[in-house]
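FAQ: What does the model actually see?

It sees only this:
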Amino acid sequence: MKKLNLFIAGPMLQYPEQFVGRKQELRAIVSRMEGSQPTSLNIVGEHQIGKSSLLYYFFLTWEQRVSQPENYVVIYLSLQNAHCQREKDFYQVVAQKFLSCPSVRLQPKLVELLQVIPLNRLALGAALGLVWGITLGLVWKESVGLALSVVWILGILRIYLWVPEFLWMVILFVISQRSNTVFWLSYLPPRIDQKIILPLPFMVKMLVNAYKENPIAVRQTIDYLITFTNQKKVATKATEKIAVDTLKECKTLQDISTVAEQLDWIHFASSQDYWILPQLLDISRNVRASYTASSTYLQHKLLDNPINGLCELTDIRTISKNAYLAATFGNIAYRWINILKTAKHNLRQEALNSKEIRQVYIAGNALDPYRAKERFKGRDKVFREIERMALSEQPPVLLLYGGRRTGKTSALNYLPDRVGANLISLLIDIQGAASATTLVGLAEFFVKQIQEGIGRLRPRLELPEPNRSKLKQDPFIELQNWLREIEISHPNKRFLLCLDEFERLGQIAEAKSSQAHLNFLRHIIQYRPAWIILFSGNHYLSELPDYWSDFLINAHALKMTYLSESEARELIKLPVADFPDIYEDSAVDAIIELTRCQPYLVQLMCYEIVEKLNQDFREYKRDTDIDRANINDVEIVVPRVLERGIHYFRELWTNLTEGERRLLVFIAKEKVYNTSNSKVGLKLIQKEILQRQNTGYCFQVPLIKKYIEKLIEEEM
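And it is asked to produce this:
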C-alpha cells in the first residue's frame, strides 16, 4: 500500500494541523499583546526558516491563545502578495483586511473611517486610534478609551508640535511684512520639521510676495516643499497664485508673448478650477510665434489662432464653479483679447502699407473656416445637394468622392456654416480614429469628435453626457444609446455624421478583427432616421472591398471635382478681401491652363508666384506696385511647383497600376494616344488624369504631364 507523504518543503504552511513547535515564540507574541503596555514585535530569521508559517498559524489560532479575544483584532498581511506600489495602496490593503474582521464591521464609525477613498496615513491613523479607544473602552471605562483615542489621533496629526509651529509662522509672517520676505523663507517651519501634516497660515502669501522679489529663491523653496515635506498642497496653491498674478500683469503684446517662458518651471497638475492655466500658456506660446515672425503680414495672420483660443475661453464665467476664479480668468481672457485685437489691427494696417505682397495662399492642409475664412471658393452646388438630401423625408446614405487634394475635407469643414440651422453637420476624422488601439478608444474618439463639433456651433447646442462606465464595458451599444438621447433631446434637428477618409474603417476592422464599429454604422443607417451618414473618400465604389456594398449600394453619390473656371479666377485674383491686383490677365490664363482649376495646384501656383514677386522686390529687381506677375513668372515657378508639390504628384503616380503608368508615359512622349476605346484610358478619364481629344486621349492637367516628363527625363 502506497503511503501518503505529509511533509511539505518550500511554501508557507496553510493549515493549522501542518504546523509543529514554536511554542516559545507563540507565547512571546501573546505576552506582548496582553501586557500592560502592548509593544511591537519584529520576527527575524533566515530565509525559509518558517517566519511566514509562524505568523499565519498565529493568525489562525490567536483567539484560542489570548484570555480576552473580544479586546483584540488580528489581521494577516503578506506584503509579497499585496502588490503595494504606492503608500496609499498599502493603507488601502490594511483597511480591507480590517474590514474583513466581524468585530470591526460591528462598529459603524470605524467602518466609515476605513472606507474613505483614497485612504491616506491620516485616515488610517484615525481609524487605528478609534480601534485602540474601543478596545481600551471595553477593558476599562468608555471615557478612558475615548480620551486615549483623542490623544492618539492628536498625536497622529502632530498637534503637539503644530501649535508652536503655528505661532512661529504667525510671528515670521509679521516680521517678513516689514523686511525682506525672501530672507525669511529659510526659516519656514517645514525647513526644520519636514513631517508637518496640518497646513500653516500665511505660507502661501509669503511665497507669492517673495516671488516678486526673487523668483529663483521661491522656486527653490517650492521644489523643497514638494520633494521633502508634506506641504505639497501649499506649494501647489502658491504656484497657482503666482501664475495667476503673472498673467494678470500682462499689459502688452510682448508681455503676453514672454509669460509662458517666465512660468515654464511650473508643472500644473489636473485641477478642476485651474484647468485654464495651461491653455493660457499655450496661447502665450502662439503669440510668441507671431511676435517673432519674419514679416508684418505673417505676424498679423499668426494672431488669429490665439485670438480664437481666447474667445473660446471666455465661456469660463458660465462653466467654472469658483466665482472668484471665473471672474479672474474671464478678465484675463478679455484683456488679452483686446490687446491682441489691437495689435492685429495695427499689424494689418502696416502690412497693407507695405510693398511686400501678403502671402495668403494655402497649399497643403485642408482649409479651416476659423483661419482660412473666405479663401474657400465655390462648391455651392455640393452644399445645396447635401442639405437637400439630408433633409428629405427619407434621407439616403451620402457618398462624397473625388481625387486627393480636390477639397473634400475643406468642404466638410465649411459645411456647418453653409447649411440651415435644422441640419447639424459633424465631422469625424476616421484617419485620426484609426490610431485608437482598442474599440473603446475608437468609440471614445467618436464621442470626442461629436462633442467638439457641437462645441463649435453658435449658439451652442446642449448635449446629454454619455455614460462613461458603460462606454468602457460595451462601447458601441452605449454610443447607440447616446445618439438616441441626443436625438430625443433635439427632436427638430437632423444630424449629419461626416466620416472623412472612411476607407480607414475597413483597416480598423482588419486590425482589430472586429466589425463592431461597422455594425454600429449599419444600426444608425437603418434605425436612426435623425442621423444621416455621409461617407467621404478617394475611391469609387468599384474600387472598394465587397463589404462596402452593404453601406453604399443605395448611396446618393456626389463627386468632388475641379473648380469651375470662374471659381478658380476668383481664388487667383481675390483670395481674400483687399488683396492687391498682382496678375496680368495672361498670367491668370496660364495658371488656369496649367492647373485645369485643380484647387490644390491653383493655390500652390499662386503661392510660388507671390514668393517670387516678393523675392524680386527684396532683391530690387522689380517694383510690386508697378510690375505685376506675367506669363514669364508663371513659367519660371513651374519647377518650384513640381518640387514643392512632390508628395501630391508622387502619391498620384504610385496609386496607378503598371498599365496606367505605361499609357501615361507613352502619351507624355507621343503627345496624344490615338485609341479612344482603351479600358486603361477610360479608367484614367474616370480618375480625371486624361481626357478625350478627337479620336484619342491627352492629359487633363498639364502640370501632371510635366511631372511625368520630369520622371522620364530623370530615368534617361
